[in-house]
């Protein structure tokens, strides 16, 4: 997902769509379109994109920035919602995803070549594994590294 797709997705996710988002931001429709489509030398400010993300209740902008930076966005639950049982559940989910990646890898390489669809599938599974691994580590550190909450959040 690129930045423009994230903007459009946030508008779609916001109740009332374009007109409601324009009203919430204090823009006319033309003004918002000019910024999103970069017309007349205009562009959308980061602060406005973050406000759109908040209004839409999504993480689409964060995901697009992470993708553009060569990474993935990991949404962390509040540490008060996580205990040892929840961490174990996350480990089990990670094991399941690794098994899925292994199975799909075997299927994709069976004919000696990975096509475009298979590559996208493997990459998506890999991104999910990465996301879950980082979430699991961050939550583990949040729970078990006393006095280091500030370092983990940074």
Keywords:
154 residues; mainly alpha; 0% strand
Describe this structure in words.
This protein is mainly alpha-helical and 154 residues long. The chain has helices at residues 3-13, 17-25, 29-36, 46-56, 60-68, 84-109, 116-144, 149-153. Helix 1 (3-13) runs antiparallel to helix 5. The protein is flat, with a radius of gyration of 20 Å. It starts with a helix and ends with a helix.
Topology:
Elements: H1 3-13, H2 17-25, H3 29-36, H4 46-56, H5 60-68, H6 84-109, H7 116-144, H8 149-153
Helix pairs in contact: 1-4, 1-5, 6-7
Q: Give a count of the beta strands, DSSP E runs of length 2 or more.
A: 0
Question: Helix count?
Answer: 8
Could you tell me the radius of gyration in angstroms? Answer: 20 Å
Provide the structure class: mainly alpha
What's this entry about, in short?
The protein has eight helices and no strands. The chain is mostly helical and 154 residues long. The protein starts with a helix and ends with a helix.
